[in-house]
Structures are given as structure tokens and as C-alpha cells.
């Protein structure tokens, strides 16, 4: 069995070494986003709910002007500690097409907690026309849809340079971002110092807001992260215990043969 | 019945009319198994258990999934967010594909090292290769279903391979698509076939086990059991050993599912499919990377054969050459343990497959490791592809003639007695005397 274990470890190493170049940051000369520690990283990682609520505030006051969050429902906000009243109030700010009235005419209604986050634009054309031709991507899965998503989104949000490096010209209506593929990004630096005022008196620096909104987006992309890890610890511990018993049983049965 | 216990009357009544109990006893309990199987022999049962896990989770996922281009992506996200424990089912199924290929590749390389394909096990080996082919198809079809960017573009790239077939290629491709591009009819049929294929695999697995129980298990020494002293009944010896293996494997499986469920996946597949935006790098899942490298290695025309067609032929040949393996390997000795030269070539071949995987995951025109001045991944891939085929078509046939194998032990029991320290030999001697 020792030989099997050694071979498997070597194979896994070869495999990981083989896959590592695959994981290389997709082309271009953009630097890797620096790795950060997040409350949700690691086997025991959890979400920091006050942080998620601050992140929600940043999303609603800043990002939501252009970016949809179409896979998340207002009711889901209960999971980050909002009560029913607050959720209803957030939903009610938005209008949605309602059922036709008795005369068959179109109506509108307020969004309900059961609705998904109402997108800022009616369709892709409206979004592009309002954004200089660029399409602001949906953010529901953003931290999963990029390699090392949370690190990348944080690096992007804080990676703007007012002056591009020497010899680099940024096209009209574009901005220079250290971490964006190709560097030219259509999104203006979205976060400004003290751009939002946090209810819990946390100082709203650019870094703080970026951190908080990344945490919120991670929750939006992976709402069951805490349940998953909590269950995982129990499952893995149980399986290790069970495997130990099975090994002991195997030894006992095989004692006759060896 | 073999256990010698007086059978229950109802069991006997059923068994006289339909010998299902005798059948189970014969194949799962009494099956005489070489006593010296190492842990490398655990991976067949592991593959079987993963197949069951995949079918069970897949059936439940299918209850919640919508195979329509407008709804597929969101229906998968609905499973992740709104279906009770949907995230668990989906992560198990998604990583189950990876686990399936890990255990099957180990199973396959084990067969290669110990010559498990040699007579009389040629058909057993063939059925295994057919299972691998079916698994490749099933995994590809399944990968398309979430309808993310990588799903869509993988479907496009792979189906377009068929256009390389002269004259009828385009017609075949459009027939596969059910239209003039990858679209809703494609997704619908991929879902239907993805549901069908696992049951076809189950059928071939049963035939694989049938063939195994006819020609009996190979073993690390590669010599046939000489009598009952060389074998032990499958139950309880290998049932407990397999169960321990399954436990250990599930620890690994669970660790991935719960702590790194997206490790083996492509981030791009969390972006909804967009036929108008091609991802910067279209890469298959890790288990297809070596084949992808072979496909891309042939970038030149030979005579009237275009590079694209050659690539497809090479890709197909890289798997179909396995069917010929029992006859390409001319050595009469099964186990690599007694083949001093083959042993080295086996490990070089395994390394070659890993290199092909690395090549498959990188852009062909990129420099190897990003710093090699003179070697691009394309060139490395070409060399590795050439070696891959040379291993089967040149090295193995020649090796059988030039290699002088080590002397084989006379029986399975002999090295068991002689191996290990004096103490263990003494301990082992006792039950042997009884036998």
C-alpha cells in the first residue's frame, strides 16, 4: 500500500504541475492579482454578515446603476441578516411589468421579495447605448466566472491608474486598469473614497468598499458556501473514521491470509 | 450453496426456478481471486461505484434541469440555489466526472503495467476500451448541458471536427447539430443522449465483468493461479478490501466536492453561452487535454490529406490503437515487474501522456513554461504525439523480441512465502501448510 500511496502522490504532483500552466493567467501581460485572505477562504471560511450588508449597500448604490444581479432574489437577502420589512422596502423601489388589467392593458407593479433583482436596463441594447457601446456584465456569478475570482475583482476595482504607463495610449472613453485583460476598460473607476456612507460607521475607503462588495458578490455567487463547508467537515471526518474502521476490519479478515 | 449453510426454504424455492441467489453467490462471493492482488486492483470497483453515484445524482438533476438554450444555464443555477441540496447533487455530479476519469485512468494504466490485456483477456481489455470511449462521449455531452461559454464552444469545436471528413463532413455535422449551428436541437439531443449513455455503459460494464469472471483476474505477478492455494474467495477478502478502498476514495471525493468544487472546472463555464463571443482560450476539461494535444499536433498537410483531417484521424487513432495493444505487445510475460526494460518505457509513456495533457492546456504558439526560447507547445506536442504512437507501434512490438525478462516465480504462493522478512514468512507459512 505504501507503494500505491507514493505513486499516487507523485502522480497527483505531476498532474498538478501539469495543470498549473493551464491555470496560468489567461494571456497578456497583466500582472496576477495579488492573493488576499478572505473571511470565506479555507476549509473553515465563513461569511462576515456585517461585511455582506456593507457590500450590498455598495452594490445597490454604485454597481447596480449598470450591473444586473439577475440570479439573486430579494428574498435571498434574509440570509445576510435583512428582515422582511427591509427586504420588501428594497424590492419595492423597483417596478416590473404586472399582469394585464381587466381591460387587457399592460400594468406595472412594485417588485416583491420573491422577484429576482430587477436589472438596471430593459435589454442589452439599452445597456450598451447607455455605456458607450460596452455591456456591463451580470454580477451574479462574477467571482466564480473569473480565475481566483474574489482576488481578481478586488484587484480590478482598486487597479485603476489615472495616468497610464509611459508609451501607452488609452482610447477615448476608456480607462487604464492594471488587471483588466488588455488594460483598457470601459468602466470608469466605480468606487470613490467616502462614496457611500456605511450605517455601521466603517470608514468607506476605496479598499474597504471593494473588499465589502467582493464579499457580497462571492455570497451572491455561492450562497451555500457556509453550509457546504460545515457539512464538508462533518462528512470528511465521518468518512475518515469509517475508512479507519474498514481498514481495521480488512486487516482482521486478511490476517488469515498473510 | 457453496457456503455450506442450509439455505432458507424460500431462497431455495426461488433459486430452483431462477438461480439468482446462486448467481450472486457464484460471482460476488465464491469468485476465486488471486490472493496477491495489490491496491492497484481497487480501481475497477471504484469506477463501478462512481458510475452508480453518477447515475443516481444524474437522475435527480434531470428532474430539475431544462434542456433549452434559453433556460438551461438558469435552470442549473436554480438547482444550485433553490433546489434542496441541489448544490450538493450538482457538485457531486460535476466532480464525479473528474473522479470517474481519475480512477479509470489509473485502472487503465494498471492494466498496461501488469499486461492485463494479454491472452486470454483481449476481449476483457476491448470492453474496457469501449467503456472508455463511451465515457468520453458521455462526459462531453454532459459538459454541454449547463450551457455556459465553455459548454457551447466545446460543442462547437468538437462537432466541427466532423466537417473534416471528406465529401460528407458538412452533411454529417449538420445532421449532428439538427440545424446549421450548435443550437436548441443540439442541446436537446445531447441531453437525451447524455441520459441514455450511462445505461449503455452499465451494459458494457456487465459484459466487462462477465469477461473478467470467465478469464479470471490478472495479478501483480502476471502468472496464472496454479490451484486453490493461490486463490481466495472474493468475499470476504476483496469485498472488505474494496470497501476500504471506497472509503479512502470517498474521503478524497468529498474533500473536493465540499472544499474545492470548482477546482477542476473552467471559470468561463459560469458565463452563460454566447455564440457571438468566443472565449480567449477554449480548453477542454483536464481529462481530455492529452487528446486535444494530439488533435492539434498535426498542423501540416500530408499529400492530399488536410491538417484538420489528419488531426482528427490522429485523435481517433490515439484511442483506437488501444484495441490493438494485445497484439502490439509481443512479450509473452504479462507483468511489468519481470520486464526490466518495459518497466522504464511504461513510466516514460505515462510521463508522455502527462506532457500531452500540459500541451493540451496551453496555447500552441506559446513558449513552453513561458520562458523556453526555442520550444513552443506545438513542437512539444508534436514530439509527444510522435512518442505516444511510437510507444505502441514501435517500442512495444520490438521490446518483446529484444528484452530478456526476469525469471518468473513458479506460483503465486511462492513469492508470498519468500518475500518479506523471515518473521512474516514464518507467519504466512502456517495457513499455507493447512491449505
Describe the structure.
- The complex is a heterodimer of chains A (258) and B (435).
- In chain A, α2 crosses α6 (206-221) and α5 packs antiparallel against α6.
- Chain A starts with a helix and ends with a helix.
- In chain A, the strands form 2 sheets. Chain A has a 3-stranded antiparallel beta sheet, with no helix packed on it.
- Chain A contains 7 helices and 5 strands.
- Mean pLDDT of chain A is 91; it is low at 21-27.
- Chain A has 258 residues and is mainly alpha-helical.
- Chain A has a domain at 73-115.
- Chain A is extended, with a radius of gyration of 24 Å.
- Chain A has helices at 2-19, 49-61, 84-92, 124-130, 149-157, 206-221, 225-254, and strands at residues 95-97, 108-110, 160-161, 175-177, 184-185.
- By secondary structure, chain B is mostly helical.
- Chain B has helices at 9-17, 20-30, 43-64, 72-81, 86-113, 122-144, 149-160, 169-177, 184-215, 234-259, 289-297, 307-328, 340-360, 377-402, 413-418, 422-434, and strands at 32-34, 231-233.
- The radius of gyration of chain B is 24 Å and the shape is globular.
The topology string of helices and strands of chain B comes to: HHEHHHHHHHEHHHHHHH
Overall body shape of chain B: globular
- Mean pLDDT of chain B comes to 92
Oligomer: heterodimer
Mean pLDDT level of chain A = 91
The percent range for strand residues of chain B is under 5%
- Number of helical segments with 4 or more residues of chain B: 16
> Helical amount among residues of chain A, as a percent range?
25-40%
Number of E strands of chain A: 5
> Span between N and C termini of chain B?
21 Å
Uncertain segments of chain A are 21-27
As laid out across the biggest beta sheet of chain A, the strand order is 3-4-5
Distance between the termini of chain A: 14 Å
What structural category do the secondary elements of chain B indicate?
A: mainly alpha
| Main sheet: strands, sense, barrel of chain B | 2 strands, antiparallel
DSSP strand (E) fraction of chain A? Answer: 5-15%
Amino acid at each position: 500500500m505504501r507503494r500505491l500511496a507514493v505513486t499516487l502522490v507523485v502522480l497527483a504532483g505531476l498532474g498538478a504541475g501539469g495543470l498549473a500552466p493551464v491555470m496560468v493567467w489567461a494571456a497578456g501581460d497583466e500582472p496576477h492579482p495579488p492573493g488576499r485572505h478572505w473571511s470565506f477562504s479555507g476549509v473553515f471560511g465563513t461569511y462576515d454578515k456585517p461585511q455582506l450588508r456593507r457590500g450590498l449597500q455598495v452594490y445597490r448604490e454604485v454597481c447596480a446603476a449598470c450591473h444586473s444581479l439577475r440570479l439573486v432574489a430579494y428574498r435571498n437577502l434574509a440570509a445576510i441578516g435583512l428582515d422582511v420589512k427591509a427586504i420588501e422596502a428594497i424590492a419595492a423601489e423597483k417596478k416590473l411589468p404586472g399582469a394585464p388589467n381587466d381591460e387587457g392593458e399592460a400594468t406595472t407593479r412594485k417588485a416583491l421579495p420573491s422577484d429576482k433583482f430587477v436589472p438596471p436596463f430593459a435589454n442589452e441594447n439599452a445597456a450598451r447605448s447607455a455605456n458607450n457601446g460596452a455591456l456591463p456584465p451580470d454580477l451574479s456569478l462574477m467571482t466564480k466566472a473569473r480565475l481566483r475570482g474574489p482576488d481578481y475583482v478586488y484587484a480590478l476595482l482598486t487597479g485603476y491608474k489615472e495616468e497610464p504607463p509611459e508609451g501607452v495610449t488609452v482610447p477615448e472613453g476608456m480607462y487604464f486598469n492594471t488587471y483588466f485583460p488588455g488594460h483598457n476598460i470601459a468602466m470608469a473607476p466605480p468606487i470613490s473614497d467616502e462614496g457611500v456612507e456605511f450605517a455601521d460607521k466603517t470608514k468607506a475607503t476605496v479598499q474597504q468598499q471593494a473588499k465589502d462588495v467582493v464579499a457580497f458578490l462571492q455570497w451572491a455567487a455561492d450562497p451555500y458556501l457556509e453550509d457546504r463547508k460545515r457539512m464538508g467537515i462533518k462528512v470528511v471526518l465521518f468518512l475518515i473514521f469509517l475508512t479507519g474502521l474498514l481498514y481495521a476490519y480488512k486487516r482482521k479478515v486478511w490476517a488469515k491470509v498473510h | 450453496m457453496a457456503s455450506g449453510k442450509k439455505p432458507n426454504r424460500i431462497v431455495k424455492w426461488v433459486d430452483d426456478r431462477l438461480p439468482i441467489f446462486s448467481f450472486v453467490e457464484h460471482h460476488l462471493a465464491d469468485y476465486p481471486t488471486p490472493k496477491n492482488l495489490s491496491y492497484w486492483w481497487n480501481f475497477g470497483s471504484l469506477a463501478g461505484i462512481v458510475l452508480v453515484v453518477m447515475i443516481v445524482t444524474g437522475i435527480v438533476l434531470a428532474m430539475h434541469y431544462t434542456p433549452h438554450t434559453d433556460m438551461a444555464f438558469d435552470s442549473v443555477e436554480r438547482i444550485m440555489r433553490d433546489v434542496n441540496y441541489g448544490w450538493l447533487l450538482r457538485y457531486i455530479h460535476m466532480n464525479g466526472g473528474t473522479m470517474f476519469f481519475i480512477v479509470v485512468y489509473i485502472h487503465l494504466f494498471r492494466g498496461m503495467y501488469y499486461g492485463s490485456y494479454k491472452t486470454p483477456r483481449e476481449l476483457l481489455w476491448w470492453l474496457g476500451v469501449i467503456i472508455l470511449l463511451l465515457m468520453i462521449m458521455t462526459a462531453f455531452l454532459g459538459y454541454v448541458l449547463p450551457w455556459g461559454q465553455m459548454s457551447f464552444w466545446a460543442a462547437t469545436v468538437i462537432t466541427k471536427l466532423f466537417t473534416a471528413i471528406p465529401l460528407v463532413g458538412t452533411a454529417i455535422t449538420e445532421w449532428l447539430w439538427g440545424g446549421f449551428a450548435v443550437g436548441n436541437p443540439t442541446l436537446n439531443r445531447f441531453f437525451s443522449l447524455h441520459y441514455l449513455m450511462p445505461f449503455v455503459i452499465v451494459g458494457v460494464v456487465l459484459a466487462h465483468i462477465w469477461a473478467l469472471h470467465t478469464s479470471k483476474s490478472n495479478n501483480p505477478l502476471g502468472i496464472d493461479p496454479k490451484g486453490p492455494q493461490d486463490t481466495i474467495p472474493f468475499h470476504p477478502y476483496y469485498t472488505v478490501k474494496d470497501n476500504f478502498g471506497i472509503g479512502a476514495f470517498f474521503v478524497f471525493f468529498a474533500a473536493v466536492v465540499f472544499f474545492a468544487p470548482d477546482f477542476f472546472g473552467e471559470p468561463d463555464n459560469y458565463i452563460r453561452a454566447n455564440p457571438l463571443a468566443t472565449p480567449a482560450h477554449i480548453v477542454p476539461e483536464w481529462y481530455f487535454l492529452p487528446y486535444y494535444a494530439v488533435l492539434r499536433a498535426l498542423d501540416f498537410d500530408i499529400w492530399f490529406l488536410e491538417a484538420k483531417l489528419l488531426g482528427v484521424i490522429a485523435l481517433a487513432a490515439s484511442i483506437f490503437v488501444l484495441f490493438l495493444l494485445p497484439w502490439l505487445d509481443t512479450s509473452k510475460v504479462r507483468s511489468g515487474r519481470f520486464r526490466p526494460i518495459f518497466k522504464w518505457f511504461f513510466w516514460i509513456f505515462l510521463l508522455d501522456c502527462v506532457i500531452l495533457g500540459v500541451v493540451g492546456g496551453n496555447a500552441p504558439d506559446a513558449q513552453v513554461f513561458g520562458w523556453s526560447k526555442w520550444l513552443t507547445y506545438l513542437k512539444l506536442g508534436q514530439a509527444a504525439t510522435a512518442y505516444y504512437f511510437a510507444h505502441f507501434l514501435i517500442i512495444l512490438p520490438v521490446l518483446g523480441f529484444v528484452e530478456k525478462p526476469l525469471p518468473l516465480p513458479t506460483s503465486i504462493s511462492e513469492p508470498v512465502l519468500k518475500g518479506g522478512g523471515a518473521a512474516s514468512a514464518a507467519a504466512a507459512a502456517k495457513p499455507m501448510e493447512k491449505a
